[in-house]
Write a structure and sequence with these properties.
3% strand, two-stranded antiparallel sheet, 2 strands, mainly alpha, 22 helices
């Protein structure tokens, strides 16, 4: 039934709005009965019974929403037209292989981060507001995945920014306000650049519906190629803002440290991937890769991607604050994906999609791990984590496995995705980039090891303390926070150990669109 697409979008969104209304009414009532000091204390502590009921409600809604979304995605191809926006351009939904791939990643990350947040958010306060936007954002992302054309995608892309910004803003501090405004500014500038390109594509494409291989009308384009290339490049820069592509990357290291760790996890694990998603839809489903091969746009795209890979790794290597280090790492790792896409070949495209899944699970797990250290020990800087393995050995082992996957050590999925990317580069007809690409990826992998593995080394083998203090008592986090991290680490390993079903699925998409 095609209506399941609409249900998968509306159910979490409506439940999220209900929580937001309840949170608003609660705050109004509280403001009339207690002073500001007590209001702050109530917001931070809350009653255990109310929290348990809220967590049960959110858990049930989230699990049901993800189940409906997966049923919609894998229950056969479906399409649904909601209403015409302008002549020939409706707001419409449709499922295809790419939408199923992305919505699966979103569902897994959202479930893991959601379960983890039940304990973490207890000390952040305003849980109803957080979960309201958390559920609302999940519905928006489902709508974005299932968008049938470029205009519908753009509408949900903008909604994604507006509904994810409050997660950055959650604690209300000055740093959070400034970071959220920076996030909004960069995202809006990027979205306007995307809209600029849509105007041009509407003129030169037979349709703005997503068609594998593109729908560009070469007869209409004849004589206007350079103008259209400029428009496409502007779109790539615009959507690259969400993906952290240089020079539109600065919002990531600002937003991640101030957001609650579950929010940082979904921002880095999922939200940035939708800049990638928008680029894929634009290049491979509207413009067509054949139009860009060998043009200055392709070479400029590759150059920016490799520059961002190296720059992000270098900044992460020298960053002492853990969450900010992970944010710079995201800047670098997402551009691995963008480099693979810019090669416009099936092998590199497969590597890019595989790395999308690997990075989503790994980076979500790493931010959740950082959140445990903040929640349980108040540790935010890398040098403060010396000896943490004696206190939380299981968690540090989870962090280590996730780090191995991000570096690309076999048999993790990170090794396989980077192998495909390097192989795709060598096989491509891109001149100097055939060798430069793998070289930059290798240097970045070494830098990644340099900024992730010292935490493991110093965590398990801190050496003797100068003051002769005893090792800390072992105290791993509660199961609700530990299990999601371990499951994400397991997923990253399974993508390398049992890659067959996923790589075949991705290869079928690559063969269809890279024509």
């Amino acid at each position: 039934m095609k209506e399941w697409i609409l249900i998968s979008v509306i159910l979490p969104a409506v439940m999220g709005v209900c929580l937001l209304l309840a949170s608003f009414a609660e705050n109004v009532k509280r403001s009339e009965t207690v002073n500001r000091k007590n209001r702050r204390r109530d917001r931070q502590t809350g009653e255990q019974g109310t929290q348990f009921g809220l967590h049960c409600f959110v858990g049930i809604v989230l699990a049901l929403s993800v189940a409906i979304t997966f049923f919609t995605a894998y229950g056969g191809e479906k399409s649904l037209v909601l209403f015409p926006l302008v002549d020939g351009i409706p707001v419409a939904f449709r499922t295809d292989d790419l939408s199923c791939f992305f919505v699966t990643i979103v569902g897994i990350v959202w479930l893991c981060a959601g379960v983890y947040s039940f304990r973490y958010m207890s000390h952040e306060g305003d849980e109803k507001r957080f979960y309201g936007f958390y559920l609302l954002l999940y519905g928006v992302l489902c709508g974005l995945c299932f968008s049938a054309n470029l205009v519908t995608m753009y509408l949900f892309y903008e909604l994604m920014t507006l509904t994810s910004m409050p997660l950055v803003l959650h604690n209300g501090s000055r740093e959070a306000i400034m970071a959220s405004l920076k996030y909004l500014f960069y995202s809006m500038c990027g979205a306007y650049a995307g809209l600029f390109g849509i105007f041009f594509l509407n003129r030169y494409c037979d349709t703005l519906d997503f068609v594998a291989g593109g729908s560009l009308n070469m007869t209409t384009v004849s004589g206007q190629e350079e103008m259209l290339l400029v428009a496409v490049f502007v779109m790539l820069l615009g959507f690259g803002a969400k993906a952290g592509l240089f020079p539109m990357h600065a919002w990531l290291p600002a937003a991640h440290p101030v957001a609650p760790s579950p929010a940082s996890a979904v921002l880095s694990g999922v939200i940035v991937k939708f800049g990638v998603f928008a680029m894929i839809r634009t290049v491979f489903y509207v413009v067509g890769p054949a139009f860009l091969r060998g043009t200055w746009v392709q070479y400029a795209w590759m150059t920016l991607a490799l520059l961002t890979v190296f720059m992000g790794s270098m900044l992460a290597f020298g960053e002492p604050v853990l969450k900010k280090r992970l944010a710079y790492s995201t800047v670098s790792q997402i551009s691995y994906i963008l480099f693979g896409l810019s090669l416009l070949t099936p092998t590199a495209f497969s590597g890019a999609l595989l790395h999308t899944a690997v990075h989503a699970f790994v980076k979500c797990g790493l931010f959740l791990t950082a959140g445990v250290w903040i929640w349980q020990s108040g540790l935010t800087r890398v040098e403060e984590l010396r000896g943490i393995g004696r206190k939380m050995p299981v968690l540090l082992w989870g962090y280590t496995v996730l780090s191995l996957a991000l570096v690309g050590i076999p048999p993790t999925g990170g090794f396989l995705s980077k192998w495909y990317l390097a192989q795709g580069a060598v096989q491509s007809q891109t001149g100097v980039f055939r060798l430069m690409g793998p070289a930059v990826l290798l240097v970045s992998a070494l830098l990644t090891a340099g900024y992730l593995f010292p935490i493991t080394m110093n965590g398990f083998f801190p050496g003797k303390t100068q003051d002769g203090s005893q090792p800390p008592q072992r105290k791993d986090p509660p199961a609700g926070m530990l299990v999601p991290v371990l499951l994400l680490a397991l997923a990253a390993v399974l993508l390398g150990v049992i890659p067959g079903p996923v790589t075949k699925y991705i290869a079928d998409i690559a063969a269809l669109v890279c024509r």
